């Protein structure tokens, strides 16, 4: 059995640096009013001794936990299977890590999980929350409001609770959908169908609206409901071909949906893009570049969305930054042309 060396204390750092304990505390906790030469001496002593601040004690001084909850309103089977979430979490993690903040991941499987998340946020464990993939009937917004923690949402809010100061980050889902459908029409396609995402999410509703902006007089039979998954894309594509066998183009609500649709088209002997052109949405490279053929899609910067969400929250938490946090930020999208359309 080996003995653990005693953990360096604030007093030990003060003695090594030749300053008071209060001076060390101010430097370690980011306080002002310490001359630069003393700051350097304290930092050198911290490094030499390997001193690690006691987070509980530090929180009493700074009133900050340096931890942010990331709440994904989806079951873990969906979160760990869909590369969209990995990209968004990577962006969030990069930004939080750059500012020495911890990411606490919370997933919701059902109503019991919603209550658990609400209790956790209200318990003072984190400084704020980043929340995305909400559904229209989700109780999380109300629970978060009750918890009183600063929050930034991923995606345009779809609920109506009388508040106007909700901070969110989204992509131009409607504009991106319009560009995709216009591209299909420009190719001479006249029977353009749409496989939607989960329509209880604003991103799917906005993409459907973008399709309708261009194809306002389209046959209602050309719109089939999906759920943002490959299996949903397969199911919807089979239904679409069964009832509209002459369809010559498909705008899918995301790349995973498009990948499922492409598999069914291949099974049914339809050539892409000769017989049916296909466009997705997201430009997730692990998906879009691996489909057969490679997928034309609408690119949204998913990782940057995550980084921006974290940046806005940290700015809100940093009382010294000044300036108002924008209520909503909408990032542009770009059509990426590959072989499928």
Give a written overview of the molecule.
This protein is an alpha/beta fold. Helices cover 45% and strands 16% of the residues. The chain has 14 helices and twelve strands. The strands form two sheets. The protein has a six-stranded parallel sheet, with helices on both faces. The chain has a six-stranded mixed sheet with strand order 7-6-8-9-10-12, sandwiched between helices. Helix 10 (202-214) links the parallel strand 6 and strand 7 (223-224). Helix 1 (10-17) crosses helix 2 (21-28). The longest helix has 16 residues, at 83-98. It is elongated and about 80 Å long. The model has no long low-confidence stretch (mean pLDDT 88).
Q: Can you summarize this structure?
A:
This protein is an alpha/beta fold.
**How far is the N terminus from the C terminus?**
66 Å
Rounded average pLDDT: 88
Give, in spatial order, the strands making up the sheet with the most strands. 2-1-3-4-5-11
Please compute the radius of gyration using only Cα atoms: 25 Å
Q: State the helix count.
A: 14
Backbone structural class: alpha/beta
> How large a portion of the residues is in β-strands, by DSSP E?
15-25%
| Regions with little confidence, pLDDT below 50 for 5+ residues | none
Q: What pattern of helices and strands is seen along the backbone? A: HHHHEHHEHEHEEHEHEHEHEHEHEE
- Coarse morphology: elongated
Per DSSP E runs of 2 or more residues, the count of β-strands stands at 12
């Amino acid at each position: 059995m080996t003995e653990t060396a005693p953990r360096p204390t604030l007093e030990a750092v003060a003695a090594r640096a030749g300053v008071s304990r209060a001076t060390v505390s101010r430097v370690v906790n980011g306080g002002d009013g310490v001359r630069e030469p003393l700051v350097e001496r304290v930092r050198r002593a911290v490094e030499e001794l390997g001193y690690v601040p006691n987070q509980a004690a530090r929180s009493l001084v700074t009133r900050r936990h340096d931890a942010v909850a990331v709440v994904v309103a989806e079951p873990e089977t969906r979160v760990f299977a869909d590369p969209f979430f990995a990209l968004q979490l990577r962006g969030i993690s990069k930004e939080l890590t750059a500012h020495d903040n911890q990411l606490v991941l919370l997933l919701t499987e059902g109503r019991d999980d919603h209550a658990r998340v609400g209790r956790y946020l209200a318990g003072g464990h984190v400084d704020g929350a980043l929340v995305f993939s909400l559904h229209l009937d989700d109780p999380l917004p109300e629970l978060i409001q009750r918890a009183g923690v600063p929050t930034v949402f991923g995606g345009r809010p779809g609920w109506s609770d009388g508040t106007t100061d909700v901070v969110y980050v989204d992509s131009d889902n409607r504009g991106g959908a319009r560009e995709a459908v216009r591209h299909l029409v420009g190719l001479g396609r006249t029977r353009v169908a749409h496989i939607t995402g989960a329509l209880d999410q604003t991103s799917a509703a906005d993409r459907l609206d973008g399709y309708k902006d261009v194809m306002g007089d389209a046959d209602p039979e050309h719109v089939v409901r999906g759920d943002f998954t490959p299996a949903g894309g397969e199911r919807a594509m089979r239904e679409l071909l069964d009832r509209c066998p002459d369809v010559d183009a498909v705008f899918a609500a995301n790349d995973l949906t498009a990948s499922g649709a492409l598999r069914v088209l291949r099974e049914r002997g339809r050539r892409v893009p000769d017989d049916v052109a296909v466009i997705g949405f997201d430009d997730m490279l692990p998906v879009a570049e691996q489909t057969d053929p490679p997928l034309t899609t609408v690119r949204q910067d998913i990782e940057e969305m995550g980084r921006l969400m974290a940046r806005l929250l940290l700015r809100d938490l940093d009382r010294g930054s000044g300036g108002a946090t924008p209520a909503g930020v909408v990032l542009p999208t770009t059509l990426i042309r590959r072989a499928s359309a």
